[in-house]
Amino acid sequence: MAAVLLQRIGLALVTMVIIAVVVFFALELMPGDACSVNLGRGASDSMLAACHIRLGLDQPPVWRFVTWAGDFLRGDLGISMQRERPIAEIVGWRLRNTLILAGVTSVIGIPLALGLGVLAGLNPDGPLDMAISGVAIFAMTVPEFISGTLMILVFSVILGWAAGVVTIGYKAPAFELVKASILPAATLIFILAAHILRMVRASVVEVMQSDFAQMARLKGVPRRRVIWHHVVPNALLPAISIIGLTMAWLLGGVVIVESVFNFPGLGRLAVDAVADQDLPLVQAIALLFGLIYVLTNLGADLVALILNPRLRTRRQ
After folding, report:
1. For residues 12 and 294, is the Cβ–Cβ distance under 8 A?
2. Model's pTM, two decimal places?
3. Which residues span the domain enclosing 25?
4. Looking at the structure, do residues 119 and 214 belong to the same domain, yes or no?
């Protein structure tokens, strides 16, 4: 158990280092630099030189990477060039808002997906399975911006049940953000639940056809007991990994949904930072997304190790 745990943590650390290297040097390879981009073509040589010194761009790239990574580990994300404020202060509120949106989506979406996946798996190829699977496949194939636009059209324009665009500020109280996240969360649930329930449905069908399930039923064990004591626990274990991957996408890939609904989260901030050519802010947000992705998958691996004894005893 300890060896497997250390291996997973080590892989997570290596992955994070690779992400940091890619994020930093990908922007280094872009034409120009942060000073030339933000000061524009009319900037004099003296202005560019002063900016380079202020941002440390006069130092070798490797040294700047080490300094940048070290500052990130200490919680110092640098200064936004366009906003002229500490990046940690800017992303703090936006990260909170994205976590609220992700929390609402997860609390509703994951149980819904698990329940629908079990129902579909217990009735394979039946009308209920066909309906659930059909909606899931549709949700998996439709891009987020189309799903979001349809949500606005139906629930805001036609039915008038909720506001189509979020108008509150990024420092709004948490309960206001929860109310404002109804349509964005519904869009994310539509996509998130589809991926999870397909995995759960396949797992339930496989376990129902397994030898031990068939033997239990032949011995006269009630179907309800077979389902809840044998099928569901064994079928949900493989779904942990897909839940982890989906949660990583949810926390790091909400850029499109937040942009469609003008939700004041980290994804929307990333779009604004790219539009403003605020390269230090883009770097910080990209690294935060990478960190969230790695930690979420590591958490899913640890939960799987705890719940599945076979993973703890498998030789690596």
Report:
1. yes
2. 0.80
3. 2-73
4. yes
DSSP 153: I
Pair (97, 225) in one structural domain: yes
197-231 pLDDT per residue, tens: 888 888 888 888 777 777 877 777 787 787 787 77
Q: Which of 90, 63, 7 shows the shortest CA–CA distance to 280?
A: 90
Structure token pair of residue 29? 């390879």
Contact present, 300 and 245 (Cβ < 8 Å): yes
Q: 241 vs 14, 29, 296, 299, 303, CA distance in Å?
A: 20, 35, 10, 10, 9
Q: How many domains, the chain? A: 2
Count of all residues that appear for the chain in the document: 316
**Other residues' Cβ atoms within 10 Å of the Cβ of residue 128:** 13
pLDDT of residue 316: 43
CATH code at position 94: 1.10.3720.10
Reported as a pLDDT band with limits 50, 70 and 90, residue 38 is: low
CA-atom Rg of the chain in angstroms = 24
Distances (CA, A) of 37 to 43, 80, 172: 10, 13, 32
Strand partners for 86 = 79
Q: What is the pLDDT of residues 254-290, one digit of tens each?
A: 788 888 888 888 888 888 888 777 778 888 888 888 8
Burial 171-194 (b: 16+ CB within 10 A, else e): ebeeeebeebbbbbbbbbbbbbbb
Dist. CA 265–CA 259, nearest whole Å: 9
* Sign of the four-CA dihedral 113, 117, 118, 123: positive
Residue (of 102, 107, 100) closest to 174 by Cα position: 100
The pLDDT of residue 315 is 46
Report if residue 59 sits inside a domain.
yes
